[in-house]
Write a structure and sequence with these properties.
single chain, alpha/beta, Isopropylmalate Dehydrogenase, eight-stranded mixed β-sheet, globular
C-alpha cells in the first residue's frame, strides 16, 4: 500500500526476532525485510528524539562481525542517507554529522586499533563531517547542539546513547525507503505482556512523527478505514 501511494507512512510495532525466524523469515528484523520488499534498496536505521539523533552503520550482527562490516563505503552510504533525511524531512539545509569512533579514544593514534584512522577518517573526509570522535564524548556534544546526527559504527553503542538520552520518547526511522516508516524504540517486552504495565509512549511518538514527516513531505495518501486512537 505504501509503495502504491495508498498510505502516506507505515508505523510498525515491535517484533520478537526469534519468533520471526521460527515463522520462516530469514531477515534480521523489520528494517531489512522492508528494504527487500522495496527492491533491496540501501537503508539505514535512525533513532531520533528531541535531544539526539543516532544513525546506525551496522545493525543486528554479532559484535565480533562489526570490524569487517564497518567499511569506508558503508559509512559514506549511511552518512549520505542521513544527510538526505535531515535535509528533506527535518529541513536542515546543511546537516552537521559526526562519526562515532569504533575503538576507545578513537584508537589513540593506532594504539587501541587502526580502524578509526584507516576506515572512519576517510569516510569523515568524504562526508565532510566531524570524526571519528570518541564514543564517550560525541553523543554529549551532539546533545549540546554541536551535531545534528551521529553515525554509530555498531548497534549497542548507538542504541545505548539514544535510550539513555530519551528512552520512551525516541523513534526508529528507516532511511532510504521510498516511503516513511517509523517504529518505537523498544522491543516486544514479552515478559510483561498482558499485565497492563507496558508504556505506550514511544509507540505514540512513532505515530506522531510519521504524521509529521508525511506532512512535511507533502504526502497525499489516505488511510482507508482509519478512525484514530481509542476507536
Amino acid at each position: 500500500m505504501a509503495l502504491a501511494g495508498e498510505v502516506a507512512a507505515v508505523v510498525t510495532a515491535p517484533i520478537e526476532k526469534h519468533a520471526f525466524h521460527l515463522g520462516g523469515y530469514t531477515y534480521p528484523g523489520h528494517t531489512e525485510f522492508l528494504a527487500a520488499l522495496a527492491g533491496n534498496v540501501e537503508v539505514a536505521m535512525m533513532l531520533a528524539s528531541d535531544r539526539l539523533r543516532v544513525v546506525l552503520v551496522t545493525t543486528h550482527i554479532p559484535l565480533k562481525a562489526v570490524p569487517a562490516a564497518v567499511t569506508t563505503e558503508k559509512v559514506v552510504t549511511v552518512g549520505r542517507l542521513a544527510t538526505g533525511a535531515l535535509v528533506d524531512w527535518w529541513r536542515i539545509p546543511v546537516p552537521r554529522l559526526a562519526i562515532c569512533a569504533l575503538n576507545p579514544h578513537a584508537g589513540e593514534a593506532g594504539m587501541f586499533g587502526t580502524e578509526d584512522g584507516e576506515i572512519l577518517a576517510p569516510a569523515a573526509k568524504a562526508l565532510r563531517c566531524a570524526g571519528p570522535l570518541p564514543a564517550d564524548t560525541v553523543f554529549v556534544r551532539a546533545m549540546r547542539g554541536e551535531f545534528d546526527a551521529v553515525l554509530a559504527p555498531y548497534h549497542d553503542v548507538g542504541m545505548t546513547a539514544i535510550k539513555v538520552a530519551s528512552f520512551g520518547q525516541a523513534v526508529n526511522i528507516t532511511l532510504g525507503l521510498p516511503f516513511i516508516r517509523t517504529s518505537p524504540d523498544h522491543g516486544t517486552a514479552l515478559d510483561i505482556a498482558g499485565k497492563g504495565v507496558a508504556d505506550p509512549s514511544s509507540m505514540r511518538e512513532a505515530v506522531r512523527l510519521a504524521v509529521e514527516l508525511a506532512t512535511r513531505r507533502g504526502a497525499r495518501g489516505q488511510v482507508s478505514g482509519f478512525r484514530g486512537p481509542g476507536t
